């Protein structure tokens, strides 16, 4: 058996470091939280909800039809700007993995939909201000998750401690498993 040279692990560490630097630069350019900082906010919000019983909403955005990296970057900046303009100061805005997301404390899924239409309008305006004129222009889609979800509301959060609920999607699973 041939041992792998030590340079492989150093190379992997270098790639990971470069990825973190790129993520930090991207977050600085948009003003959003990095994915690590956003995950920490999500953990804190879940703990607050478990204690108080008051819900929160996680909205995960997806930017579609961005044909190149430059257009995707402008669309992310437009979305970040729209989030800062439309959401409250107490709402966390950042990267949830590779996607932009927002945590809205003390908000239900129904109430969260009230900000989404105006947010789409502001996003379109910000894109126009940055001279994005491609056809088709980037479009915004989103998924809204409420915590505690219906299953937890029916059983109570204490009844589910130590049990794994069946997730409907990877994002929802990660939300359930935040400790």
What can you see in these coordinates?
The protein is 55% helix and 17% strand. By secondary structure, the protein is α+β, with helices and mostly antiparallel strands. It has a four-stranded antiparallel beta sheet, sandwiched between helices. It is flat. The N and C termini lie far apart (41 Å). The model is unreliable at 157-174 (pLDDT under 50).
> What overall geometry do the principal axes of the alpha carbons give?
flat
Give helix % range: 40-55%
Number of continuous helical runs: 7
What is the residue-averaged pLDDT? 78
How would you summarize this macromolecular structure in one to three sentences?
By secondary structure, the chain is an alpha+beta fold. It has helices at residues 7-30, 35-52, 69-86, 109-129, 150-155, 157-160, 170-176, and strands at 56-64, 92-96, 99-105, 139-147.
Write the SSE topology.
Elements: H1 7-30, H2 35-52, E1 56-64, H3 69-86, E2 92-96, E3 99-105, H4 109-129, E4 139-147, H5 150-155, H6 157-160, H7 170-176
Antiparallel strand pairs: 1-3, 1-4, 2-3
Helix pairs in contact: 3-4
List descriptors.
single chain, 179 residues, four-stranded antiparallel sheet, 7 helices, flat
